[in-house]
Amino acid sequence: MVFAFNLQSAIANLQSNNRIFATAMQYTLKKSLGQHFLNDDNICRNIVAALRQEQFERLLEVGPGGGALTKYLLKLPGIDFKAVELDEEKVRYLQQTYPAICGKIVHEDFLHAAIPFEDDFIVVGNFPYNISTQILFKVLEWKRQVPVTIGMFQKEVAQRIASKPGSKVYGILSVLVQAYYDVEYLFDVPQGCFNPPPKVMSGVIKLIRRTAPPDVKSERQFFNLVKTAFNQRRKTLRNAVRGLFDDGTLNDEIFDKRAEQLSVQDFAVLTFRMK
Predict the structure, then answer these.
(1) Which bin fits 63, alpha (ψ -120 to 50), beta or left (φ > 0)?
(2) CB-based contact 84:110 (threshold 8 Å)
(3) Chain segment 38-61, per-residue pLDDT in tens
(4) Domains parsed from the chain with CATH numbers
(5) How far apart are CA 40 and CA 47, in angstroms?
(6) Residue partners of 65: CB distance under 8 A and separation at least 6
(7) Beta partners for 81?
(8) At what angle do helices 132-141 and 155-162 cross, to 10 degrees?
(9) Per residue in 164-206, pLDDT tens?
(10) Which residues of 172-183 are buried (b: 16+ CB within 10 A; e: fewer)?
């Protein structure tokens, strides 16, 4: 009788575990979308703690995936919350698992999405690795309405965004982001915090919009100058950007430097001397 009771108990436990497993497997991981889903509650709580340091009324999560972070964001009181998710399977899973998200999902490609709010909002997310840089450029497009962004990236990308002049990883992304945002590297995230584990470490950074971005002749010329300079970063600035300045201007000693040696302000000032 004892054996029968234990056997029935084991079968009941197995059935229960299978139901949990079935629930967890209502979605699949898609490498084509750069999906590495966060599954560490401590990391999620740390991201929420960083969010709580800011005053905001509207919040946009990019790529909620399996909802590890979303379940905490939905609990933030008095916040108008939206989430952008491209994967239809994940949209169904989120709606089934977190009913409070219904009506709050923008089922769209974030890179082609319209701005989701009329007023200022914060952007947060465990950004898909394969489009994380493009996500930042989208945030730059929306910078007048996005005072703060908190995002998770591959660690090397996060370090590049936060790097300073003279660093080997200082580049286009560093200059363009830092022209409009102050960058704070918050913390590392080990591979084991994800499913599936990525091959590299991750890092969370916080962008806080600058109250006084540098003056530039035009944003188009500023972006063009920075991209042109770093596209040939091993050359002196004089050789890398020759087509953007007249010969007299190129005689200035600043053009003896390489792009990685120039500050954000240096690039901004140079825009007023472009053709």
Answers:
(1) left
(2) yes
(3) 999 999 999 999 999 999 999 999
(4) 31-209 (3.40.50.150), 219-271 (1.10.8.100)
(5) 11
(6) 35, 37, 38, 85, 87, 90, 126
(7) 59
(8) 40
(9) 999 999 999 999 999 999 999 999 999 999 988 989 999 999 9
(10) bbbbbbbbbbeb
